[in-house]
Specification:
Blueprint lengths: L4 E3 L2 E2 L2 E2 L1 H13 L4 H9 L3 H17 L2 H18 L1 E3 L5 E3 H6 L7 E6 L9 E4 L2 E4 L1 H12 L5 H12 L10 E5 L8 H6 L3 E5 L4 H13 L3 E6 L13 H9 L5 E5 L7 H19 L3 E5 L6 E4 L1 H12 L2 H13 L12 E3 L5 E6 L6
Parallel strand pairs: 9-10, 9-12, 10-11, 12-13
Antiparallel strand pairs: 1-4, 2-3, 4-5, 6-11, 7-8, 14-16, 15-16
Length: about 350
């Protein structure tokens, strides 16, 4: 059967995620760091060498806001130029072109009204307890002291606890790609009274759970319905229909992406989501974007995180010494010190480069 939907570009009869990754990273870094771009383009051991290239790219982006924007824009542009969409008619088009078209089978809508009472405070389940108010703030501070979260996290939690009226989301609209994700905000948004336009796969199990969630909440769940009457839709094949379905939502909207798939399919679904976002942003100016970042990536972190890690390392004593010996004996592969690589940003701050890549994944 011929593949359908969002696809990697075909080169020499193959759709290669490796080739595209190398091409996009080389293109993204060409203006900011030509030497890095050339090294990426020439790389022949991509599966083992790409983490170093990603670390270097992140360090270059962290150096200045302009560099970060240039790299991100060039990389995104290249992805949108390269990705393809194969329609039900077998015709291959550029992804953005396909998503902008009127869908052959538009999505319908089913609405589920919540029957529960609206939650009026922040509640955090933690180790068999429900933390509220000052207990949440106290726990957040303990996490910050232990290096589990950054100090800015405590500041945000404190502000939310001090302003419970912020949790009144009646009259607020959210569109969620991957609404059934376990780590997504769907249940909380519904409990706070929001209107949620949910996008997820056509699976009875997923929609039974979301429908029950909506009924128990205080908001309204909007469910996409296919022409065959089934709830749900597929980001990879119903991409244009989803774009149209969400574009027609009335009023200001927060559009969030919480999708995930294994392996190279994650790149496909991420591109589907980005193409939908782009199409909606081009059609209206009252949309804000939100997303849940993957933890297995490379990040620039603030000076406070770097300082905390260095203090903990200095205080490690015998266990720290043993970790250092193991690091040397393993050729630098085990017990790697956190933030061994830093970069000085344009404002003079020393930012750490956190390498959280999981190569096995």
């Amino acid at each position: 059967m011929t593949a359908r939907g969002v696809q990697f570009p075909e080169v020499d009869g193959k759709r290669s995620s490796t080739q595209l990754s190398r091409d996009v990273l080389a293109y993204a870094t060409a203006e900011v760091d030509p030497a890095l771009s050339a090294a990426v383009a020439a790389e022949r051991s991509w599966h083992t060498a790409y983490p170093q290239h990603l670390r270097t790219m992140t360090a270059r982006a962290a150096a200045s806001g302009e560099a970060a924007s240039t790299i991100a824009r060039a990389g995104l542009d290249r992805l949108h130029q390269q990705f393809e969409y194969i329609g039900a008619d077998g015709v291959t088009r550029r992804l953005d072109e396909a998503v902008s078209m009127n869908p052959a089978a538009p999505l319908g809508r089913r609405v589920v009204e919540g029957e529960g009472l609206r939650s009026t405070e922040l509640v955090v389940p933690y180790r068999g307890r429900e933390l509220r108010g000052a207990d949440i703030v106290a726990q957040a501070r303990r996490w910050a002291q232990d290096g589990v979260v950054e100090p800015s996290f405590v500041d945000v939690i404190e502000r939310v606890v001090d302003n419970p009226e912020w949790l009144d989301l009646r009259g607020r609209t959210f569109a969620l790609l991957g609404a059934g994700a376990q780590r997504g905000p769907t249940e909380l948004l519904l409990s706070w009274g929001a209107d949620v336009h949910a996008v997820d796969v056509p699976s009875a199990r997923v929609w039974d759970r979301l429908t029950a969630m909506a009924s128990a909440g205080a908001g309204t769940l909007h469910v996409p319905v296919r022409t065959d009457g089934a709830d749900g839709c597929d980001l990879l094949t119903d991409t244009a229909a989803i774009r149209l379905w969400l574009t027609e939502v009335e009023g200001p909207m927060v559009l969030g992406n919480y999708t995930y798939m294994d392996g190279a399919d994650f790149v496909r679904v991420a591109m589907a989501a980005d193409a939908i976002n782009l199409g909606i942003l081009q059609a209206r100016d009252d949309v804000s974007l939100a997303y849940l970042a993957t933890p297995t990536d490379v990040f620039a972190v603030p000076p406070e995180a770097v300082a905390h890690a260095r203090v903990r390392q200095a205080e490690a004593g015998l266990s720290g010494a043993l970790a250092g010996i193991t690091n040397r004996l393993s050729g630098g592969r085990a017990f790697v010190p956190a933030f061994s690589e830093t970069v000085t940003a344009e404002d003079g701050r020393e930012l750490g480069i956190a390498d959280c890549l999981v190569v096995q994944q």
